[in-house]
Amino acid sequence: MSSDASNSGKLYLIPVGLGASDADKIFPGINAEIISNIDDFIVENEKTARRFIKEIIPEKSQPSLNLSALNKFTEASEITTFLDAAKAGRDMGLMSEAGCPGVADPGAEIVRLAHDTNIQVVPMVGPSSILLAMMASGMNGQSFTFHGYLPIDKKERKNELKNLERISADKNQAQIFIETPYRNNKFLEDLVQTLHPATRICVACDLTLSTEFIKTATAADWKNIKADLHKRPAIFIIQKDL
């Protein structure tokens, strides 16, 4: 049974920074205003969430915060209670560990539950590494697909890359991936070795940070480009032209 939205609090989807940067240069002032009035949060990482809240609202009382962790360790039975504060009439916040909640993030499950229980969902403005990379890639922003992680097995990964490269050419569609940061250099090497020499590859690393690096070049040209991506958050995009 759905709850009455008029008596429920709202669920604010609160973006978090992509790394150590000046929050006032990335987030609109309304974000701080909203966060200051919320004590109940659903977060991917409690330590990261507390640090971010303190950065945005230094004067906010940390002991007053009620944080529920939503990650790979969360039991399914717990999730059903996560929106109890909103059902009781209090506004709540949903925060990813970095970037926008609900996008490549387990928070999507909470957003779905909010809709199912008639709780108003309010997305807030903030950085999305996927969209920032897409904006800066020079590839087709009218048609693109985010795949997350590719298979770890080398043969399976090669086959999947070849398949997605064909789809990219057939549909004129950009294909977006991420990788565990300590495997970034190997992933770029796999892209260069597997894809057609003319296929474009974009690497967008450390987005919004002082060390930001964004480069789009063909697979052939990447063989001559030096870029150390080790342990740096990165987005990879490929597109093969017809």
Q: Return the average pLDDT rounded to an integer.
A: 94
Total beta strands: 10
Structural class: alpha/beta
Shape: elongated
The succession of helices and strands, N to C, reads EHEHEHHEHEHEHEHEEHE
**Main sheet strand line-up:** 3-2-4-1-5
The percent of residues in helical segments reads 25-40%
Tell me what portion of residues adopts beta-strand conformation. 15-25%
How many DSSP H or I helices? 9
The low-confidence parts are none
Give the termini distance in whole angstroms: 51 Å
Largest sheet: 5 strands, parallel
Q: Concise description?
A:
The protein is an alpha/beta fold and 242 residues long. The protein has 9 helices and 10 strands. The protein has a 5-stranded parallel beta sheet with strand order 3-2-4-1-5, with helices on both faces.
Q: If you had to describe this structure to a student in words, what would you say it looks like?
A:
With 242 residues, the protein is an alpha/beta fold. The protein is 32% helix and 19% strand. It contains 9 helices and 10 strands. The protein has a 5-stranded parallel sheet, sandwiched between helices. The longest helix has 18 residues, at 154-171.
